[in-house]
Amino acid sequence: MSLRLSTVILPYRRWHEGGRATWQRAEELGFHTAYTYDHLSWRVPFRDGPWFGAVPTLTAAAGVTERMRLGTLVTSPNFRHPVTLAKELISLDDISGGRITLGIGAGGTGFDASALAPSGREPWTPRERADRFAEFVPLLDRLLTEDTVTYDGAFYAAGGAQNIPGCVQRPRLPFAVAATGPRGLKLAARHGQAWVTTGDPKLYATGTPEQSVDALRAQLDKLGKACADAGRDATELDKILLTGFTPDRARPLESVAAFVDFAGRHRELGFTELVVHWPIPGTDFAADQGVFEAIATEAMEQLG
Fold first, then answer.
1. Radius of gyration of the chain (CA)
2. Which residues contact 181 (CB under 8 A, 6 or more apart)?
3. For position 122, what pLDDT does the model report?
């Protein structure tokens, strides 16, 4: 089974102070896709520092790259509305020449969940986030595939929303659905062209790499069942692992050999794409830039 290597570039650098050069270098290194996080802000040490918007960043990246795919990892309903998001995505897909993948998930707690909330309102519970996600994804699917959409739901509405001419990619740009629970996996099976996971968060602090592999295998089994229930072949979906959140942490980026070993084990599980964080000194994503670039240019060839 073939395996693709992609990267995620956090949007914390000014465009003219390293941001542009990073996206261009990612294409030079041959990454399949360069993603960015779609947050209003993120955790420490980024929480009180520069952090730029995902859609403008990807628009700029589309203008300085030619071949590499671009995407979010991930967008969520926390501060997005399907109608306005659809318009931005159609525009972005057009500007990029059809190179956009939408990573999308239910969202979590933190700044994204509270930035638009009235004072004193509690963040949505996991159930509320799942309820909104279950309505968000099918509506966004319609908005990206139909010229005009009218919809009145429990959380979202569209009053004759027009999205002409639609996406460059047909019938729409691909969805990479991040999910591990039954409702999210159902959405991935019905609407996704790819599925995204970061592994089992309960294992991050005290688990072992072997336990992580077992947990990922179980997630893949659940995805397969969700696909079967939806009357879909699970092999139709790409399986994407966003690395850096398993017990291995940054160890796979310590050498080309370490990464080849890590990648080989996860390819055997059925993953078709691994995403590594572009190195950021002084953070959990610190890595030797030279080793990182050697992994990008040599590891996939060694995997065969």
1. 19
2. 130
3. 79
